[in-house]
Amino acid sequence: MTPPAANRPTKVPRLGLRANLAQFCLLVAVNALVGGMLGQERTVLPLLAEREFGLTAYTSALTFILAFGATKAATNYVAGAWSDRFGRKPVLVLGWLIALPVPLLLIWAPGWGWVVAANVLLGISQGLTWSTTVIMKIDLVGPDRRGLAMGLNEAAGYLAVAATALATGYIAARYGLRPEPFYLGVAYAALGLGLSTLVVRETREYARVEAAAHTARPDGRHDHLHARLTDRQVLVQTSFREPALSAASQAGMVNNLNDGLAWGLFPVLFAAAGLPVAQIGVLAALYPAVWGAGQLVTGALSDRAGRKPLITGGMLLQAGALALVALGDSFAVWAVAAVLLGAGTAMVYPTLLAAIGDVAHPAWRARSVGVYRLWRDGGFAVGALAAGLLADGFGIRAAVWVVAALTAASGLVVAVRMYETHPRARAG
Fold first, then answer.
1. CA triplet 70, 98, 255: central angle to 5 degrees?
2. Which pTM was predicted?
3. What is the pLDDT of residue 225?
4. What are the phi and psi torsion angles at 143 (to 5°)?
5. CA pair distance 321, 338, nearest whole angstrom
6. 264-292 burial by CB neighbour count: b if 16+ within 10 A, else e?
7. Locate the Major facilitator superfamily (MFS) profile domain: which residues (predicted)?
8. What percent of the chain has pLDDT over 70?
9. Which residues, in sequence order, are CB contacts of 365 under 8 Å at separation 6+?
10. Contact call for residues 303 and 148 (beta carbons, < 8 A)
11. Measuring CA to CA, which residue among 53, 42, 22, 39 is closest to residue 265?
12. How far apart are alpha carbons 275 and 92 in whole angstroms?
């Protein structure tokens, strides 16, 4: 006789990549679609600002990145809190609903204000969808393979950014800047919403299982970080007080500051040097392609070698790559710089997320991820504003030099302030 449903034993979720492989792979695919929504803009929008809307001031042209970065940063924080309160899946589905009108607005925009409005929606959507896929993968895999999980997540997203940037560059070269390049975004949004609604499963219970089995570090470093922290306490710990969390937050912000520079000004710099749109598309794709593919290696490597060496080295490598962009004047030199910039970012990006997951207690980890991503994606807004003002006042190359110096300084902050967060690497 089958027992009543109320009396049946509840199946306890099993943590681990192998135990949850199907759902994990589905979330990787969903995050690739999230990245594709961002990639549709990387090549086309900076050129659209200048050629169709006549924006000659860099500060004005970069308002779309400012709008995107500010809204994505704020939404990241909300996404973390909502994921704890309402569950991960509802937040993911909401993000895709908000993404649906973005490519249509870009296709039909009669003025630059429409483009900015589309990027407000894109920022909100990316904050909800990308944050949630990060949190859900951390939920599923448990502590041992966190670096690998973040590497796979970020690799999928940024390989899709690269592939879409490359594809839209070739489409724009053949058919024009609008509307054809943005048809990809329409398909991505529809597919992402369908998969998230019909196939993705809720993962919040996995975090509760990990929290129940959570043990303190043997060195006692996290003893002050109790399971029950208020939202304000999580914000303060992640942003300022806890050394590893705060070091990761500032590094994430500077990383995306230089990405905002690359997104908004590199295509204009390359065009001013006489490169055709197809070559600009290759350069716009090369950086996130190396970034994306490299994370397949660096995420797992941080599980063995530790988080701190990769973060410090990656920030310094990015600084050197930016200096090479400022010095360069040809496709070949800029291609080398793009590869180096992508490699440095690959060392940093999944490792920072893994470090946050190492330190934050499972009970407030989603909120801590949200705070970290608030700072990290705030770098887009800061980068767009600072790079625009510097480029208008002193030229694009001067803006690149300043950002290179800030990136190097950020790496030194990590070297001084951050401790090793991965217990196994620290013990070794």
1. 35
2. 0.78
3. 58
4. -75, -30
5. 7
6. bbbbbbbbeeebebebbbbbbbbbbbbbb
7. 15-422
8. 92
9. 135, 138, 207, 356, 357
10. yes
11. 42
12. 39
Count of CA atoms in the C-beta half-sphere (13 A) of 362: 24
Helix (H, G, I), strand (E, B) or coil at 387: helix
Q: Return d(Cα 310, Cα 349) in angstroms, integer.
A: 10
CA distances from 225 to 220, 221, 228, 245, 351 (A): 10, 9, 8, 12, 21
Tokens 């001013």, residue located: 272
Amino acid at 350: P
More confident residue, 260 or 90: 90
Q: Where would I find the H helices in 101-145?
A: 102-108, 112-141
The pLDDT of 178-206, averaged and rounded, is 93
What pLDDT shows up at residue 415?
96
Separation of alpha carbons 27 and 8, rounded Å: 29
What token pair was written down for 135?
Answer: 């949190």
- Token representation of residue 339: 């590869």
Residue-averaged pLDDT of the chain: 87
Number of neighbouring beta carbons within 10 Å of residue 143? 18
> Tell me, what DSSP letter sits at residue 213?
T
Q: What average pLDDT does this structure show over 285-312?
A: 89
Q: Distance between alpha carbon 6 and the CA centroid of its chain, in Å?
A: 42
Sign of CA dihedral 53, 55, 58, 59: negative
What tokens does 101 get? 């009108």
Query: Binning pLDDT at 50, 70 and 90, where does residue 295 land?
Result: confident
Q: Are 415 and 81 spatial neighbours (Cβ–Cβ below 8 Å)?
A: no
Peptide bond between residue 218 and the one before it cis (omega within 30 degrees of 0): no
267, 177 in Cβ contact below 8 A?
Answer: no
- Per DSSP, helices labelled H in 43-111 are 44-51, 58-61, 63-86, 88-99, 102-108
38 residue type, one letter:
L
Pair 295, 350: CB distance under 8 Å? yes
375 close to 248: Cβ distance less than 8 angstroms: no
Token code pair at residue 13: 């979720």
* Average pLDDT value for residue range 120-148: 88
- Domain borders along the chain are 18-207+230-422
* Euclidean distance between CA atoms 31 and 9, whole angstroms: 34
Do the Cβ atoms of 327 and 374 come closer than 8 Å? no
Asked if residues 354 and 57 have their Cβ atoms less than 8 Å apart, the reply is no
